[in-house]
Amino acid sequence: MTSILDAVRQQLGPDTIQQMSGALGADSTATSNAVSLALPAILAGLSQNAAQPQGAAALDTALNAHDGSILDNLGGLLGGGAGGGGIGGAILGHIFGGRRGTVEQGVGRSSGLNTGQVAQLMAMLAPIVMGVLGRMKQTKQLDPGNLPEVLQQSREQGERETPGLGGLLDANHDGSVTDDLLRMGSSALGGVFGRKS
To answer: pLDDT tens-digit profile of 32-43?
Structure first.
C-alpha cells in the first residue's frame, strides 16, 4: 500500500505549491520547506490519536465525511485562501488540541514562514490529508483495525525523512515525541473532524 505521506505528496505538485505560496504571500521554497515539516507533523498527530481504539474508531467515522472529492478541486480549496478557521482549522483543532500553536511555531521557526502563514498553510493541508485518507478508506479498505498501523508507518517514514521533526514535536526536550503527541491529542479525537463544505 502506498504510504499516506507519499499519497498526500502526490497531491502537492509544483503548481499546487505555487498556488499555496500565492495564497500565503510567501515564496515557493519557504512554502515547500514548511509543507515538508507540516505534513509529517499532521500525520504524527493523527497516528497518536489513532493509537487508542476509541481514537481509531473516531477517525474512521470522521473519514465518512471526507470521501476524497476535495482532491478533485484543490484549486477551489486553495483559491478560497483556506484561512486558519473553517474546515482546516477544525481538523487541526481535533488533531492537536491546545498544542496546535506550538506545532505551528515550530514549523515556522524551521521553515522561515511566520506563524500566521504556517497556520494558514496547515489549515490548507489538513483537509487534503483527510481527503487522501478518506479515498484510501474507500479504495484500500482502511478501517479502525488497520488505520493505526498505516498511520504509524507514515509517522515513522516522516521521522526518517524529515530531519528535525523529532525536535519540532518534542516540546519538552526529553528526547521522546510520544509523550508530547499524547498531550497534543489524547482527547482531541473525541468529536468529528469537521465536514465537507
So the answer is: 999 998 999 999
